[in-house]
Amino acid sequence: MMKSNLEELAIFGGRPAFSEKIHVGRPNIGNRDRLLERINDLLDRKWLSNNGPYVQEFERQVSERLGVKHCIAMCSGTVALEIAIRATGLTGEVIVPSFTFIATAHALQWQEITPVFCDVDPQTHTLNPWRLEAMITPRTSGIIGVHLWGQPCEVETLTEIAQKHNLKLMFDASHAFGCSYKGTMIGNFGEAEVFSFHATKFLNTFEGGAVVTNNDELATKVRLMKNFGFAGYDNVIYVGTNGKMNEISAAMGLTGLETINEFVANNHRNYKQYQRELAGLPGVHLFAYNENEQCNYQYIVLEIDEAITKVSRNDLIKILWAENILARRYFYPGCHRMEPYRSYFPHAGLLLPETEKLTKRVLILPTGAAIGADELSKICQILRLVVTKGREISENLLTHSTDKAFQGSKK
Ligand code: T4K
User: Of 92, 148, 183, 290, which sits with the fewest C-beta atoms within 10 Å of its C-beta?
Assistant: First the structure.
């Protein structure tokens, strides 16, 4: 049933639009039989970890697909970032966006390297190269750009700046598997790029990640570091940790790679439907992907301009949660407003006006194979109802207690 007036909204006592929760980040699960076949194989083989055949095959297929020389699979994107940072030799200060998942900053701070937060471009949501040069100090050793939502950073300009100032450039490509920049696959830029294959990512290995690079020396170092520094039995030649991907994760990754075109097709179909059904809705802007590049369309990103909608992003989230649509406000409130960075740099926000603005405006909607066209239409219809009656809703919300409907998202 389509909702057409305010009393029908669940936040004001109506029946929720969905009887079950609709999540952002539902995993892409490829062919279940193929996965189970692989799991049976690996159990029969009794080879569960430590550079097993599935991990080797997964690394080979990822390298081939991206046209990159080396892929080193890992147990998570965060550990892959930490190892890449260490192997690249970053020290002192590294410039990163604050508008990213906290792991980008933590991977530096974990090894006592200071993340220096730079503002992002309001159009691309990625590092603003024009702001970046002003953040460089004598302690700066590198830059980590984040291809947020799979939208590539301004790679060329960042490369020029890094060369000019003799800085190392790396990319957190956690969101950007299967995306391209000027026709070249993400994975080929900077010293190294890092993917996440977490359950919620476009391609998942339950938990997992990878460092990819075209640099032979760096690849050797990363490979050693993710395996305690072992160069052979009884021979440790480097400080290292345990960053290894296990066989069951690689089995999931290989299975996902077989149907990756379907994952893109689902996401692209949903993106186009959101685009059509939200078109012309005042104050609601759908983040636009460049359709001339390869893209995974894994995130449906809205920006809510409260001055026009008259209903705030946070109220909109409460309304959607009451309808069982669990929209998220990634990456609120920005790394600079989370510990320990909030204590270290209490005034960082002054240099991050676009980040501050985006963290108050962005809302992520569900997509992926788990959501059908009818469900998606229902979500758009609720958004349309709320936004067209924004002022009335905000006034009503003031008189209703809505805390129960919304438990608050973690970020
Ligand atoms: N850099 C960037 C830019 C990143 O975005 C991330 C990770 C990293 C680095 C680090 O990579 P990893 O070390 O994680 O590989 C999620 C993910 O946990 C995190 O991997 C991801 N970014 C981030 C953007 O999203 P949360 O806190 O939103 O997770 P959670 O548990 O709330 O899950 C999100 C939604 O997904 C839930 O509403 C339900 C759904 N879900 C989740 C899982 C785990 C499922 O339906 N099934 C599942 O198995 O962080």
Answer: 183
| CA distances from residue 26 to 71, 198, 342 in whole angstroms, order as listed | 26, 11, 31
User: Using the 8-state DSSP alphabet, how is residue 365 labeled?
Assistant: E
pLDDT in tens, 57-84: 999 999 999 999 999 999 999 999 999 9
**CA–CA distance, 240 with 221 (Å, rounded to integer):** 9
Q: Give distance in angstroms: CA of 15 to centre of ligand 1.
A: 29
Query: Treating both helix axes as pointing N-terminal to C-terminal, what angle do 216-225 and 77-88 enclose, rounded to 10 degrees?
Result: 120
- SS3 at position 288: coil
CB 102 within 8 A of CB 340: no
Structural domains in the chain, CATH included, are 6-26+260-327+366-403 (3.90.1150.10), 32-258 (3.40.640.10)
Instruction: Report if pTM > 0.85.
Output: yes
CA 294 – CA 370 distance, rounded (Å): 22
Task: Supply the residue whose CA is at minimum distance from atom 48 of ligand 1.
Answer: 199
- Of 99, 120, 149, 198, the residue with max ligand 1 atoms within 8 A of its CB, to mutate for a pocket test, comes to 198
